[in-house]
Amino acid sequence: MDQASGDWPVGWVGGWSGGSTPPSWPSAPTIRDPERPAGRRCGADRAGSPRLAPEAATGRRCARPEESPVTHPLDGKVALVTGSSSGIGEAIARRFAGHGAKVVVNSHRSVEAGERIAAALPDALYVQADVADEADGRRLVEAAVERYGRLDVLVNNAGTTKRIPHEDLAAVDLDLWHTILDTNLIGPWLLSRTAVPALREAGGCIVNVSSIAGVRPTGSSIPYAVSKAGLNHLTRLLAAVLGPEVRVNAVAPGLVDTPWTADEGWDGVRRWVEGVAPLRRSATPDDVADVVIALATSGYVTGEVVVVDGGLTLRT
């Protein structure tokens, strides 16, 4: 079975528009150190007094803001990324690790690739598991919590599909429906439900990797598009019931340059995207990973499905 996250042919912004001059903000109140006389800057001398360093004059150092190293919000957090042995999932895992997170790498079949990626990251654990299997999903979450003592982010990235023209209804059998729905929709549901207690305790979040095929009637096959539309709605439903402790969002990529879309069968689609999308290119896995990181760290965003397609859906 082919593997895919994100799909093809099948983004929203605003700003100040209240006139030529934006409203002025109220002035912030002045906060004074009660231990220093009013009207004097730290270390300033009185008229006629010899100029002394503040330490010499008062016996203590002048109060300064404490210096602390700048850290990323994900530093020290734990992220579980399913389907992270290649493509989008690998890029997401590497992005989390680059921001200081501990990462649980997962794959179903590509064990060697998953182990290699985990070994290359600063602090990572590889767990082989099939997300469509409830027992495997439970073992995956338990392994993360046992190793790191917590779980802050669950990224449901694992997905599967098969390229079948939508008009070829006879080529879609029940086995294909079950395989795609089990991996792309039921799997994220089972894994999210299993991870909820740990995520609640950590005040964490879920990010689902969907597709614009779940937003527009398009995609590599009808079952795939339906599975991603269901994942989008599952995202909103879970966001409504898991707040305020757990946030749930999704990212919906268009065509992404991954090993799965590297064969020549995708060349025509890629040329079409490059000619139609405002940004004139397909996405890279890092483009998608950047949005996943943003959703994982945006504390007031939940229930959103963020399209990452270079503006393609604006033209289709």
Task: Describe this protein with a few key phrases.
316 residues; alpha/beta; Rossmann fold; two-stranded antiparallel ribbon; disordered N terminus
Could you give a short description of this structure?
The chain has 316 residues and is an alpha/beta fold.
Tell me what you see in this structure.
This protein is α/β, with parallel strands linked by helices and 316 residues long. It has a single domain, classed as 3-Layer(aba) Sandwich (Rossmann fold), CATH 3.40.50.720. The chain is built from eight helices and nine strands. The chain has helices at residues 54-58, 87-98, 111-120, 134-148, 174-202, 222-242, 267-276, 285-297, and strands spanning 2-3, 78-81, 102-107, 124-128, 153-156, 160-161, 205-209, 247-253, 305-308. The strands form two sheets. It has a seven-stranded parallel β-sheet, with helices on both faces. It starts with a strand and ends in an 8-residue tail after the last strand. Mean pLDDT is 85; it is low at 1-63.
Structural class: alpha/beta
Extended strand count? 9
How much of the sequence lies in strands comes to 5-15%
Strand order of the largest sheet: 4-3-2-5-7-8-9
Order of helices and strands: EHEHEHEHEEHEHEHHE
Mean pLDDT: 85
Proportion of helical residues: 25-40%
State the domain count.
Answer: 1
CATH topology group: Rossmann fold
**Biggest sheet overview:** 7 strands, parallel
Radius of gyration: 25 Å
Between the first and last Cα atoms, what is the distance in angstroms? 29 Å
CATH architecture annotation: 3-Layer(aba) Sandwich
Apparent shape: globular
Model regions low in confidence, pLDDT < 50 over at least 5 residues: 1-63
Number of helices: 8
- CATH class type: Alpha Beta
CATH superfamily: NAD(P)-binding Rossmann-like Domain
